[in-house]
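REQUEST FORM: STRUCTURE PREDICTION
Request ID: SP-0412
Submitted by: Lab K.M.
Chain count: 1
Length (residues): 126
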Amino acid sequence: SFSGLKTAVIYMVRKDKTLLSRKNIPDLAASFQKAVIDVLVEKTLRAALSYEVPTITLAGGVSSNSYLRSEMKKRAESYGVDAIYPPKEYCTDNAAMVACLAYYKLKKGQISNIDIDAYSQISLKT
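STATUS: Completed
RESULT:
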């Protein structure tokens, strides 16, 4: 989880509102992305090397991120590990499925309050 990093950014922005200027937002976002990807790549490669895994497969929605793909490929090759991933059109997440479920729940009158908690394993039953 990257909630600690997210919280650090929130506190940093609260402390210095100029970070939210049009000029700074792209740099802030790129810095956040780089920090997350550095950790993902490092931990993935550490695990692959520890277990002598010859090939890493990136999949799911996050694997469509170009920077993640290039960093994983470059750093994996430097350790003699192969990094593979499907074409971007096959790297999706569950957003469409969640939207479809929401549509059918709405049709049945199953509406949630605005302050609903987030659940990572919500039932797909309507």
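NOTES: The chain has a mean pLDDT of 89.
Reviewed by: T.R.
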